């Protein structure tokens, strides 16, 4: 069993997604790995995709061991529209339908924008934004033809509206994903298709530490400025994805749900107010 995970059955009923087929991109590691775990826990038939077969195979084996349930995986490069077409066609042929699509696959790097090469810019945009579009289009057009009211959840980021210094291509791509969700929420609503995004703030994972952060002192310094006192972990993102996938969110579309501990909010001046103009004792006022 994963050491840090979202205990889905403590919040949702055990068979919430029984009979539902979930396609999850980037399901072999990070946030996606935990999302896959919770959908299986709640009875879903889960298909995960990635370019890395080793991670996919490892996830499949771990879930089989932990939950005594089988999942399916496909090797797919979502930045390649032909690879996506083949993967989606195979999933529909094998499963008959997809009920919930979760676009989670991502890419990132940390460097000054002026030092960013066109090759690196394109690689991130192709994976994060274009890949999300390719998978969404291939699944969505089948739903429209079949008159099926599917559900799409994109894992975006608060950097899509706050900006993303030193991570320009990722921030731009996430902004595109958020706008795509709002656009299709309007355009595809008449087909009964819902599309929303969960937008994490900075999420501390082993992978993000190696790629983006220089040392733990920097993380501690930044986290002290977060209103809730810390960055979310991957396990903190899962509950919101499950909510948007559930019947509780049937009238929600085109929405962006920030899961960031308040990191994207304007910084509070409460400490300065307390320092220079001490507040009255609240208990005394109540009495």
Low-confidence stretches: none
CATH superfamily: NAD(P)-binding Rossmann-like Domain
The total of beta strands comes to: 7
Gap between N and C termini, in Å?
50 Å
What is the helix tally? 11
Tell me which oligomeric state these chains represent. single chain
Would you give the CATH topology? Rossmann fold
Topology as H/E string? Answer: EHEHEHEHEHHEHHHEHH
- Main sheet properties: 7 strands, parallel
**Structural class assignment:** alpha/beta
Overall geometry: globular
CATH level-two architecture = 3-Layer(aba) Sandwich
- Report the mean per-residue pLDDT as an integer: 89
State the domain count: 1
Structure description:
This protein has 287 residues and is of the alpha/beta class. The protein has one domain: NAD(P)-binding Rossmann-like Domain (Rossmann fold, 3-Layer(aba) Sandwich), CATH 3.40.50.720. Helices cover 47% and strands 12% of the residues. The protein contains eleven helices and seven strands. The protein has a seven-stranded parallel beta sheet, sandwiched between helices. α1 links the parallel β1 and β2. The longest helix is centred in the middle third of the chain and has 29 residues. The mean pLDDT is 89.
What is the topology?
Elements: E1 21-25, H1 30-41, E2 45-50, H2 53-67, E3 72-75, H3 81-95, E4 100-103, H4 118-146, E5 151-155, H5 159-162, H6 168-187, E6 194-200, H7 206-212, H8 216-223, H9 234-245, E7 256-259, H10 270-276, H11 282-286
Parallel strand pairs: 1-2, 1-4, 2-3, 4-5, 5-6, 6-7
Helix pairs in contact: 1-9, 3-4, 4-6
